[in-house]
Every structure is written in structure tokens, then in C-alpha cells.
Amino acid sequence: MAWNIERYFLDVINNRTPGLAAGSLRKLLFVLSKIYGFIVLLRYFFYRHGIFRRKTLGCVIISIGNITVGGTGKTPLVEMFARALSDGGRKVAVLSRGYKRKKRSRLSGLLRGEWHEPPGIVSTGEKLLMTSADAGDEPYMLARNLKGVSVIVGKDRVRSGGYAIEMLGADTLILDDGFQYLPLNRRLDIVLVDATNPFGNGHLLPRGILREPRRNLKRADIFFITKAKETDTAPVRERIRAYNTRAEIVECYYEPRYFADVSGTQRYDLSYVQGKQVAVISAIADPEGFETSIRRLGATVRATYRYADHYRYTREDIDVVIRELGKNVDCIVTTEKDSVRFPNAFPGALPMIYLRVDVKIINGSRDFSDCVARLCNF
């Protein structure tokens, strides 16, 4: 249901839905986008002129984010930066908002004397302390994959950063999805741009997918053009340069590495799905791209099941797939981010596997290496 509503709105804003009702909705969304844009402009004005103060925490702070909602592939890049900086000798903490995580009751916190929501420690770098439901799928995935890197969730990332420095000894903070988070000064602003759909229809939310006007790209220090394999990136580069002439530009794509059981206990080569009949389940912003990648690996996709972004699966959802497909498929395939929202596997079920991908840099690898080296020697 939620996916259908989401898909309908995407079709409306991209002018794929004809009719009077859709046209009227677009007009309403356009008016709302103008109001939203004014609020964004006012907020930046307050920070730029010191009416709202930015905090400096006395350590290296890097923001990795985007200017659009969904679909740029930010989490693998956060993981790559965190791992590279940790390998270079930095004590790294990732600060995330923890989107759609299960939160504790504020009333119970107030009764305990907690006037501000305390930071949630997903991982100390050595031990996982939260479930994916409590942490949010992306922070949990980062915590599971990054040894020696702490992961903290909380709306107030100034408090989260202070905790990471004082209690966990962090000297480098990565703001996950931090381009619009202005209360913290940062050393670098890294912005991801999707090569296949850089700025949507050019409108701000909710008429389009832009979180802020494109002219604000001038704040970025490094751009990562994602999904750049087999894509002509020259037009995207030109559009970026129209707003920012100084930033470095790196081009990359997400390279499949292996499959793994959703429990994480077993790995399989990419050839595992070759010739197999599979069902693909996903709750991400770009399901079409993921489904295409599975087909390219040699699988026959018998059915696809798409849910709203960040949807948390139930056993009934998996039962539906099994009942509908029976013995007509060999396994169920999902994304790594989806896998942490799956229920525990149960006896007799179809094999459930996820695809692991890593960032592969096409152009600008020296820029990335130099950036990491500069930060490690700061």
C-alpha cells in the first residue's frame, strides 16, 4: 500500500500521470515547494549570518550527503570513507540520524530526568549494542560491517559528536547524510550526485526530489558522481560546474562483490545465481536498478516484490512469496540494506540471500586517496 502511494506521487511529480486530478495535485505540490524553499532559504540565512550558531567540536568532521532524496547510494560510500580513515590511523565515529528507527518513549525519558534524547550507541567499534529496529537499517549495517568504528544515532548530532569524542575517544566524525545538517562546522562537505537522475525534475520537495536549491551545491568540496558506469557523465559534470567550479569530482559505481545468506553466516560467489530462478524483494528508492543488476548476474527473475523505502518486513511477507511461487524459484534475493530488516530465517523456507556491493572508483581515485591522506595527517 505504502509503495503504491509512493509510486503514484513519483509518477505525478514526473508528469507520468495524466488527468485533471494529477494536474491539480501538481499545482498544489508546486505551491508547497515554494513554501518549503522559502523555509530552506530562511534557515540558511540565519546560519550564514550567525543568528543560529554553528558548533565546533575540535576534531575532523566530514559530511557525506546529497541534495536529493533517496537513491544515490550513500551508505557504501560512508563505509568506504570510514574504513579508509580507520585504516589510516584515525579513530572514527559515524553519526547518523537513525532514520525510521524505533525510538524510546520521550515520556519515560523525561521521568528519568533526560531532558534531551540521549545518543544511541549502535556500536562501540568492538561490539554491537542495538538491533536494526532500534538503530535503523543503515546505521546497523554500517556498525555490522565496520570493525573499530563506532556508530551513534540521534537527531542532535552535536550531542552525539560530543559523546563520541569524550566517551569513545573519536578524533574523526563522519556525518551520515549531513549536507543539510548545519549546526556542526565541518572540514569537508562531500556530495553524491546520481549520474542517471542528478536533480530529478529540478523542483524542490514536494514537487520534486530536491532538498534544497541546486545553487547550494557551491558549498560542496568533493562530488561523487554515482552509478557512472556505462553512463555519459559529461552533462552531469557541466551541470555541477555551473554551480561549483572549485570542487573535486570523482566518478564511481557500485560493483557486486558476493552474495551472502541474510543471517550473514554463509557467502556465495556471484555465479551462485547464474541460471537460477529467483524472486527479488526490495524496499529501496531504486528497485529497478537492483533488479537489473541481478539479471546481469545471470539469474532469471520470476517475480519482483517492491515495498516503500525502509519498509520492515514480516514473516507474513516472506510467506506470501513462498505461497505464490512455491517451488518455481530457487531462492529469494534482496539488498544488503534490506537484509537487516528481514525476519529471522525459519526452517523449510526458501534460501534468502543478499547482494553485497562495494564502491568502485572509475575516475578520480587519486583525488580520493589524496583526500584520505590529508585527513589522516591532519
Question: Overview of this structure, please?
Answer:
The chain has 378 residues and is an alpha/beta fold. The chain folds into two domains: 60-99 and 110-254 and 360-376, Rossmann fold (3-Layer(aba) Sandwich); 255-359, Rossmann fold. It has twelve helices and 13 strands. Strands 1, 2, 3, 4, 5, 6, 7, 8, 9, 10, 11, 12 and 13 form a 13-stranded mixed beta sheet that branches. The chain is globular and about 65 Å long. The model has no long low-confidence stretch (mean pLDDT 91).
Nutshell version of this structure?
This protein is of the alpha/beta class and 378 residues long.
CATH fold descriptor of the largest domain: Rossmann fold
Low-confidence stretches: none
Structural class: alpha/beta
Span from first to last CA? 49 Å
Question: Mind describing the biggest β-sheet?
Answer: 13 strands, mixed
Write down the secondary-structure element order. Answer: HHEHEHEHHEHEEEHEEEHEHEHEH
- Mean pLDDT level: 91
Under the CATH scheme, which architecture of the largest domain would be assigned? Answer: 3-Layer(aba) Sandwich
By CATH reckoning, the class of the largest domain would read Alpha Beta
Tally of alpha and pi helices:
12
The portion of residues assigned to helices is 25-40%
